[in-house]
Amino acid sequence: MIEAGRIYPPGLGIAELIHVDARDARAALWAMEEGLRCSALGAVIGEIWGDPKALDFTATRRLAVAAERNGVAAFLIRLGGHANLSGARMRWRVASAPSRAHPFDPKAPGAAAWDAKLFRARGFAPGRWSIVRDAHGQARISNEDAAGRLSMVAAAADRTLVEGERRVG
User: Fold this and answer.
1) pTM value?
2) Residues 74 and 48 in one domain
C-alpha cells in the first residue's frame, strides 16, 4: 500500500537509486540496516507507516549506530505515526505550507513551500524553518528564530571524485 507516493529520482538529482519495496516494517528496517552497513551508499531512506511493533527504541538505535559506524546518512520517514521514544540523533517534523504567490497569475499556485521543525537533537537547539523553492529551483531557507534572516542553500553538485585527469566514481 503506497500512502504517500514514491521517491522521484530526478528530483533527488542523482543517477543511481536502489529501491527496495519491503513487505512489512520488520523487513523495511532490516533492509535499511543492511544498506547502512554498506559504506559505498550515500544515504538510506526508509518509509514506515503508522506505529508498527517492530519500530521500537532498539530498532532506531541500531539504525543510528549503523549509520554512524559506516558514515552513511539515514533518513527514516514516519507517516501516520505518533512521536515516541527513538534512538534517532535528530527528529524533525516536516509539513507542507501554503504555496507562495505566483509572480504572473494570482490565481495560479506559486512556489512550493514546507515548514520544518527540529524538535529534538543532540547538540543542536530546537528551531523552525520555512523552505521555499525559488524560480531557479534552489531552496531558500529562512529561520524564524534568526529575525527573518534568509540564507541560500547551494545547489546539488556533481560529487564524482577527480584524481588527476581520470574520473573516479
Assistant:
1) 0.65
2) yes
